[in-house]
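Service request form, structural biology core

Requester: graduate student, group of Dr. S.
Request type: structure prediction, single chain
Budget code: on file
Notes: please return the result as structure tokens.

Sequence provided:
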Amino acid sequence: MIVEAHEDFSAPTALAPEFALAFLRDPTRLLSRVSFLREVEVSGQEVRGVLAVQLPLLGEVSLPFFSVLENTERGARLTPQPIEHRRAWLEVGGEGRLDAELDAAALAYAFVFRAHLDTPTAEKWGGAAFEKMVQAAASRTIARVAQALPRALAEALAVKAG
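Core staff response, request fulfilled:
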């Protein structure tokens, strides 16, 4: 089962362009206030961590992720990498960029979360109904995670600016 959520948003910034770009390119600082991500490790261009969420009907599920960070001209891009031999894992991908217009600047983000959940094959109507309930619950949970991201990144930006 694959469940996906997208979140596009922007945050105004008073940082000088060089500091804003450095912030976008530093996942440790960028993700420092994202409470639902655990064990975030950055090694070179590799970003790894775990999303721990409560899923109705399944309990707490830990979804590891592995992404590669690439600097772009106006920011950075996260490209998700597959994690093999796991029953459940997460793709975290997206892009952050500096948008400077006239006298104002903003950091614009576009994130995609795609959860891969290995569930038993539904063979009867009861199993199919259970699968639909899990799908709906997982979709709501991943959407809530994506929607919480703007506030967490704004808090990290405020710490950087402060």
